[in-house]
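Continuing the batch. This is chain 6 of the set; chains 1 through 5 are on the previous pages. Same settings as before, nothing changed between runs. Recording input and output for traceability.
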Amino acid sequence: MFQGNPFDMSIRHQRGVWILLIASILIIFAPRFFLLLEKEEEFSELILIPVEKKASWENTRKYHPWKKTRKKRKNKTFKKPTELFDPNDLSKEEWMQYGLSEKQASIVLKFTKRGIHSNDELQKIKFIPKETFENMKQFTRYSAAENAEVKKYIKALSTSRILVDVNNATEQDLLNIKGIGPFYARQIIKYQQQLGGFIRKEQLMEVWKMTPEMYEQIQDKISCESSMIKQLSVNQASVEELQAHPYLNWNQANSIVKMRMQKGVFKSIDEIRQSVIIDQETFEKVRPYLSL
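Output for chain 6:
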């Protein structure tokens, strides 16, 4: 077991402790010493900058990337048109001549490619400067609007040419309509004959087995000429003739004939409404197919 004073060290141990202490001090303070020397050198270099180079050095410092610089904006020149033109026909370069930037002109071209038809539409394009619009608004003309009207007329004309009058159509005429096959062609003609003619296109929905989908597909391709309607005389038609109409049953037909026998003759079609078994809806549907 160790005995004696623990702080008693040999001369060799004492030297080692001093060397370790000095080395630690050097390691801690040496970096600070070298940093101080560098700052002194930089300071001395700044002092020694010649007067003639100082101005150029300061100018260079103004344009450091981390400093914001303000560029003077160039005043835009707005060209004024001298003759009529269509804004839809202007190129990007021509829009730029009227005062738009390249980016603005590219965006405006996207609108004109779709077609603009008036100065109101042109003014709504927010990328066109107000001064540019004021300069050009008196010289604009819109051939696109004229062309749109012509196309609309041509389309209406071509559409009217392909319409098939279901009151005067043959089975082959109906077969030429896309969506109508032999079955539906026969059923349409059969019902047209039973009715005495179609007054409204919506009556096609009454054709046997006609579906809403089929009707939607063909309704724009047909027409109904009401002058082709055949009427039944309420003063001459028999019960059988009246009840053969799709809108009247036997009881209603018989009621009309009995009323006629009592009155002698109908003076107005509206008189059949006096029958208790002919309601208002039935009367409105059958009225166009009756005559005195």
